[in-house]
Amino acid sequence: MNIYFDLKELTYVSDKKKRKKLFLVLSSKVFKKAYERNLIKRRLRAIIYPFLKKEKKKYLLIVKPPIKDLSFQELKSLLEESLKK
User: Fold this and answer.
1) Measuring CA to CA, which residue among 16, 70, 17, 19 is closest to residue 43?
2) What whole-number distance in Å separates Cα of residue 49 and Cα of residue 47?
3) In DSSP terms, which residues pair with 78 in a beta bridge?
4) Domain span at residue 80?
5) pTM, 2 dp
6) Mean pLDDT to the nearest integer, 52-81
7) pLDDT, tens digit, for every residue of 24-34?
8) CB of 52 within 8 A of CB of 58?
9) Residue 18 belongs to domain with CATH number
């Protein structure tokens, strides 16, 4: 388990169109401003989607508060390391 996020592989998801491979969870209690949540979501999608094009699995990504302080490069290295496992 990482202090910045919790990445889980989903075995059952009721995604009727079967397009969505990534489910992001960012609490509005933790990230008060919408622009903070949107910035983090955009960064995570930009990093993860190239990886997900090759995968057939679905992932749930639960984001935790310290992630706000990470730069794009730091976030990218952490996620790539987690996705390789």
Assistant:
1) 70
2) 6
3) none
4) 5-84
5) 0.76
6) 84
7) 888 888 788 89
8) no
9) 3.30.230.10
What are the C-alpha distances in Å from 69 to residues 12, 33, 74, 76? 32, 14, 10, 13
- Bridge-based pairing of strands 5-10 and 58-63 is antiparallel
In this structure, what token pair is assigned to residue 2? 């990482």
Better pLDDT: 77 or 53 = 77
Total domains in the fold of the chain: 1
Give residue 45's identity as a one-letter amino acid code: R
Instruction: Give 79's contacts (C-beta < 8 A, 6+ positions apart).
Output: 5, 7, 44, 47, 48
pLDDT computed for residue 68 by the predictor: 82
Q: In this predicted model, what pLDDT tens digit does every residue of 9-54 receive, in sequence order?
A: 655 555 556 667 788 888 888 788 899 889 988 998 898 888 888 8
- Under 8 Å between Cβ of 5 and 59: no
Question: Which tokens go with 70?
Answer: 């990470």
DSSP state, 48? Answer: H
